[in-house]
Structures are given as C-alpha cells and as structure tokens.
Amino acid sequence: MRFRLIPVFALMSAALAAVPAQAQDKGSVNPKPLPPLANPSDPNIAAKELFGRKLAPAALAPQAIGFYAKGCVAGAVALPINGSAWQVMRLSRNRNWGHPDLIALLERVAIKVQKTAGWPGLLVGDMSQPRGGPMFTGHASHQIGLDADIWLTPMPNRQLSREEREETSAVMMVRKDRLDIDPSTWTPTHLPVIRAAAQEPQVERIFVNAAIKKALCREAKGDRSWLSKVRPMYGHDYHFHIRMKCPPGSANCEAQTPPADGEGCSTGDLAYWFSDAVLHPKPPPVPPKPKPPLTLANLPSECRQVLQAPDAK
Ligand SMILES: [Zn+2]
Asked: How many beta carbons lie within 10 A of that of residue 10, not counting itself?
C-alpha cells in the first residue's frame, strides 16, 4: 500500500481529522492474511497490529468508544456489500464495519441520493475495521465506527465484480492547479449527493477538498445552512467523508467541537487552503521524527475489552 507524502502541518492536524485516504489505491481479490504476532501481549506493540488482525466484530452491545482518531467500536455491524442503493468497494480491506447507526445513516443517504441526484447509488469506500481502532494504512480517524468515505463516482447501474471492486479507480474531481473543481469530471449531480449527507441531523461534519467546498458554495441554491458542516480537508478529492455525531448510548464516545455556524464560503474562510504554503508545501529543512504509533495504552481502557471479546456471530 502506498503512502502519499504529507506535509508536516497535515500530520499535525491528523489527530483531529483524516489524513488523505486513498480511494484510488487498488486492492487484491486474494489478500494475504497477516502472520500471527509473536508476542501479542507486549505493551509496546502498535494497536494497529492488534486491531488489524481482528476479522470479526466484538460480541458486545454497540458502542463507539473514544475519539474518531483514538478509539474503537464494540458491536459493529457490516454494511451489506450490495444494497438497493449502494455497493461496497475494496472488499479485501474488510473496512465496511460501523456502529449500527452509521449503517442506517448510509442506507438512508444512499436511497435519498437515488431520488435527488439521479445516481443509481453510492460506492462506499473505507468505514472502520470490525473492531475499529487504528489501521495499517490510510487514515488517522475511522477508528470508532462513525466515519465513512464515499466515492465521488456514481455507482454504475449493475453489480460490480470482486475484481472491479478492487481495481476500479475513483475519479479526481479537482483541477490540476488545485484552485477549483475539474469541470470535465465535476457534475451538477455532485452537490445533491453531498447535500443529502450534510442535511442528515446525525451528521457532524463532511470533509471535502477545498476546491470542492468552493464549488458547493458557488452552486448551492435555497437552503444553504448545510454548508457549515462541509469542511475543507487535505485529500478528499476523489471521495468525500461523512462523520457522524456520537450516537445515543455511547457514553464513552468523545464528541468533536461542532463546526462554526457560518457557511465557510467567504474568500477569507478559504484563503488558507488556497495559499501557496498549502498548495505547494516546501519540505521542512529537518524531516520531522515520525510519531510513534498508538499503543493499546493510548486508547480508552474499554478498547481492551473490545479486543478480548469473542467474535460476534
Ligand atoms: Zn476520509
């Protein structure tokens, strides 16, 4: 799996949000299983090594535990890989898991998209691992079963094969100079898709590339209140990211400060994202020390029970 070079400030903000996730990265129909760990109880072992080896959810009541970028999920359920209005991509990653409220939300949004955008449905990318937690590749968040990446490519009007789900690439929506959307790929149907998600009361934030935010600000007619939830973020130029609020009944879920009220559409609001420092970041003179990976001790203590619980049937 390839990592993109990420500027330092992006790494710093990664604790709060998502690093670029790579919908365009291909998977394999026959992924190799991970070898067993020599000493799984070693306290210094990276939590991603433990959570990355769990192939089934914990047989516990549904709970989102901790923060989006530091936590886990109990009692997760899978989004069915074929729905009436969606299909799951990159099945080899086994990341189509989430809190049951996220599954219900995605199904609802997908059906709404058929009606309002005329898309046959949604292509769903990464959600969480069966027990959440940190991942080997791609995301800082997506740890508590409340985040989902949705492709900005409409679902085709037929069932995709296993191979296609691994090999098909998402489509780039941002122009080469990064200052606006690419008019050859961005269509009038993209706004109603993103709006369908943003208007859901349980949605906390939507992450899109700043060029996409700029286009939404320009194109939104009528009710524009949903724009405040749509936040510019690094990456997110092939897909957008839905983040749900902490669901009722998840006492140990740590809420994120709600986004500011305004639409976030003024030149000033977007200036940072179109600044030279963000568009053309210079490598730091001294490469930063890589952050040590999260260990189990860095996560909420309940995540230990989530790891130890038997597999849900
Ligand atoms: Zn994302």
From this structure: 20
